[in-house]
Design brief:
Layout lengths: L12 E5 L9 E8 L9 E8 L7 H11 L19 E4 L2 E4 L12 E4 L6 E3 L2 E2 L2 H9 L20 H8 L15 H6 L5 H12 L7 H8 L13 H5 L6 H14 L3
Parallel strand pairs: 1-3, 2-6
Antiparallel strand pairs: 2-3, 4-5, 4-6, 7-8
Helix pairs in contact: 2-5, 5-8
């Protein structure tokens, strides 16, 4: 997958260069995108000299150290540190990744950290995910049934039925996939994007769900579903090794088969 790069005419002001800390032993240069919409100033890229010998092994560790010791105003999201919550998704050296699972030693040259591409920025590395979450909610990601639940037990599945939904249900909603998709960049107001469509697929194939027809009806739209052109960026960047592109293709196949 090609790296994401800002357009050549992007208005990014010259940033602040922070000197190396005294006694540094293993320096890496870290370039961090800085932008505060409330300030009225253009975005900038600040440069930091990081002593990798005195911080943890991951990009998130580097961000935490720089915030704690150099510039407390650096803003980013984080939570679990274990690749589970998806909070620290950002664009690192041109690829959407989780900062907590990306090792510094995996990255060659300078470390370039930007927010997820083609999203409004709240501040610095924090994108506005309001539309992303609204699209997820739009596919009704919950069990829909008409028949009453059994009075004395849960709605059961076979092992095989559970295994069908096991991988799609592992999505952590980090938004790495949707924000790596060119179709989503240009049509995010109408195209649901890989993450929401993967969630839709997870419920469509759930043996306990009784709204398959309605779910497919709501997706049969030139933009909501068919704006996907199988570019595969979504699958390339997924930190959980999921395959949203395959799920989208399966939904398209279901729509064709029910018309035969």
């Amino acid at each position: 997958m090609a790296e994401f790069r800002l357009p050549a005419n992007s208005r990014i002001a010259k940033g602040i260069t922070h000197p190396a800390p005294p006694g540094a032993r293993a320096l890496r240069e870290v370039r961090i995108y800085r932008f505060n919409p409330d300030s009225g100033e253009n975005p900038r890229v600040d440069t930091f000299s990081l002593d990798t010998a005195s911080c943890g092994p991951m990009v998130l560790d580097a961000l935490i150290q720089l915030k704690a010791t150099v510039d407390s105003s650096i803003t980013f999201r984080r939570s679990c540190r274990e690749g589970i919550c998806g909070s620290c998704a950002m664009n690192i050296n041109g690829v959407n990744r989780l900062a907590c699972t990306t090792a510094l030693q995996e990255l060659s040259g300078d470390i370039r950290i930007y927010p997820l591409p083609h999203m409004p920025v709240v501040k610095d590395l924090v994108p506005d995910l309001t539309n992303f979450y609204a699209q997820y909610a739009a596919v009704k990601p919950w069990l829909q049934t008409r028949t009453p639940a059994p009075p004395d037990r849960e709605r059961l599945q076979s092992k095989e039925e559970q295994e069908r939904i096991d991988r799609p249900a592992a999505c952590i909603l980090c938004a790495c996939c949707s924000t790596s998709c060119p179709s989503y960049w240009w049509n995010s107001d109408r195209f649901l994007g890989p993450a929401a469509l993967l969630a839709a697929y997870r419920w469509i194939i759930d043996s306990r769900d009784e709204a398959t027809g309605e779910r497919l009806d709501e997706l049969e739209d030139p933009f909501r579903l068919y704006r996907c052109h199988t570019i595969m960026n979504c699958t390339d960047v997924c930190p959980k090794d999921l395959n949203p592109a395959r799920a989208i293709a399966e939904i398209k196949k279901m729509l064709v088969e029910r018309q035969v």
